[in-house]
Design a protein that fits this description.
mainly beta; about 0% helix; four-stranded antiparallel β-sheet; three-stranded antiparallel β-sheet; globular; single chain
Length: about 110
């Protein structure tokens, strides 16, 4: 599977839009002392709200809500959970479906 890299800036709080599977997606990414959290509106429908983002863990588990593939942060230098200071360089935000059984993590 080829993943789409979603451009993200090294900012603690940010909102941005991109196109996924031909539809508009609006992201809000918030970093706190407890971790990174995401809200996503896809094609006008809130599909992810306040979901914690962990390394290589799909934070779009309810694909029946409309967003058809997984969303993942991937640490390119290890297996640490994302930190905003490395967004776009060390930590990539990917969109796609993993090829392993179960579909919840990628390696």
């Amino acid at each position: 599977m080829t993943y789409q890299v979603i451009p993200i800036q090294p900012l603690a709080v940010q909102s941005f839009a991109c196109t996924l599977d031909g539809q508009q997606a609006q992201f809000t990414i918030t970093s706190t002392a407890r971790g990174v959290f995401a809200d996503v509106v896809y094609n006008g429908v809130s599909v992810i709200a306040g979901r914690q983002c962990l390394d290589r863990t799909d934070f779009n588990p309810a694909k029946y809500n409309g967003l058809p593939q997984g969303l993942f942060f991937v640490d390119q230098q290890g297996t640490s959970d994302p930190d905003y200071t490395g967004f776009g360089s060390r930590y990539l935000l990917l969109y796609g479906t993993p090829t392993n059984e179960g579909g919840t993590t990628i390696s």
